[in-house]
Design goal:
Blueprint: E1 10-14, H1 18-30, E2 35-39, H2 43-54, E3 64-68, E4 79-82, H3 98-115, E5 120-123, H4 128-139, E6 146-148, H5 152-166, E7 173-174, E8 177-178, E9 186-187, E10 193-194, E11 197-198, H6 213-234, H7 239-253, E12 258-260, E13 263-266, E14 275-278, E15 281-284, E16 287-291, H8 298-317
Parallel strand pairs: 1-2, 1-4, 2-3, 4-5, 5-6
Antiparallel strand pairs: 7-10, 8-9, 10-11, 12-15, 13-14, 15-16
The structure holds 1,4-dihydronicotinamide adenine dinucleotide (NAI) and pyruvic acid.
1,4-dihydronicotinamide adenine dinucleotide binds at residues 14-20, 39-42, 45, 83-88, 97, 101, 104, 108, 124-126, 128, 149, 153, 181, 236-237, 241.
């Protein structure tokens, strides 16, 4: 007999550290999934985090919160988000984490696929592009079902900075960061717009500057540096990535067909292939299903190719 409660949505979060717990908190506050499961090797920590989150249940949409150090807690998940593993210490780049996190990915993906064979996998652990490529390989799943949060976070940083300079709401800014989630990422100025006006033609509201080349390059540099500044000040970035990942998860669970710059497997994006990298892509219930060929200036394309090569070089170092 069919019970209406037989099928509800389940989100599994692997890694109950700064990112995983903030993401779980954001997802609970927004009612993203009916069940939120946390998995961490540190049993004491995961139990404590679950208890703390459960004590907020009265104030959020109805949800069940569970946690364990046993992978079975992720059983039947619709979306599995991976945030487990090493994070940057001040001065380290994301690529410096690859040795440790690629090994971890090799270890955990088969077990996660074993308990959640139908899930969409969202990788967050850094270096996210390399980790996503590894996760696709070690899971054996179709590429569209395994993708990375990529430059969704960086894009949000970029839009916030543009909005602050232009004096408009962040929702009125359209602009993407593409490429590596890291030092070689690229701001796609040529396709950016503010309130329907191409950004490169934006004249500035009264008393506000136009976004000239100098200001644009300052904004782009600030976006690249922002994670280092936050890590220097508090040891981790967690709030914005928690919200960014939650937005991506909702695009999947609600089959939104949302365009997001996630890190997906590129086959032939302006000739770029055999790499996971962020470009605007369609995200729906099947995962990251196709990329969108945004018009690029010659310089943007050159920089995107260089970014792809840099990520590929790291992949090769780890035999991927
Ligand atoms: N893609 C992005 O935009 C962002 C990525 N990150 C990355 O996310 C990752 C996590 O960062 P934080 O949460 O700050 O680190 P954290 O150190 O606070 O948490 C990591 C957690 O993973 C757990 N863990 C380790 N091995 C595990 C395993 N085999 N199974 C389950 N859990 C395991 C640890 O016990 C720890 O609780 C890092 O690689 C960081 O660089 C962080 C922010 C943004
Ligand atoms: C840590 C990291 O990847 C970020 O905040 O961008």
């Amino acid at each position: 007999m069919h019970h209406p409660t037989d099928r509800t949505t389940k989100l599994a979060v692997v890694g109950a550290g700064a990112v995983g717990t903030t993401l779980a908190y954001a997802a609970l506050a927004r009612g993203t999934a009916r069940t939120v499961a946390l998995l961490d090797v540190n049993r004491e920590k995961v139990d404590a985090e679950v208890l703390d989150l459960q004590h907020g249940q009265m104030f959020v949409p109805q949800a069940q919160i569970v946690g364990s150090d046993d992978v079975a807690v992720c059983e039947g998940a619709d979306v599995v988000v991976v945030t487990a593993g090493a994070k940057q210490r001040p001065g380290q780049t994301r690529l410096d984490l690859a040795e440790s996190t690629v090994n971890l990915t090799r270890k955990i993906m088969p077990a996660l696929v074993g308990v959640a064979p139908d899930a969409i996998f969202l990788m967050v652990t850094n270096p996210v592009d390399v980790v996503t490529y590894a996760a696709q390989k070690y899971s054996g799943l179709p590429h569209e079902r395994v993708f990375g949060s990529g430059t969704v976070l960086d894009t949000s940083r970029l839009r916030a900075a543009i909005a602050a300079q232009a004096g408009v709401a962040v929702g009125n800014v359209h602009a993407y960061i593409a490429g590596e989630h890291g030092d070689s990422e690229i701001a796609l100025w040529s396709s950016a717009s503010i309130g329907g006006v191409p950004l490169l033609e934006w004249k500035g509201l009264s008393g506000r500057p136009a976004l000239d080349a100098e200001l644009r390059s300052q904004i782009a540099a600030d976006v690249v540096q922002s994670a280092y500044r936050i890590i220097g000040g508090k040891g981790a970035t967690n709030y914005a990535i928690g919200l960014a990942a939650t937005r991506i998860i909702e695009a999947v669970l609600k089959d939104e067909h949302r365009v997001l710059p996630v890190s997906s497997h590129l086959e032939d994006y302006y000739g770029i292939g055999d790499v996971c990298l962020s470009v605007p892509a369609l995200v729906d219930r099947r995962g990251a299903t196709e990329t969108i060929e945004v018009p690029l200036s010659d310089e943007e394309l050159r920089d995107l190719r260089a970014s792809a090569e840099r990520v590929r070089a790291t992949q090769r170092r780890f035999g991927l």
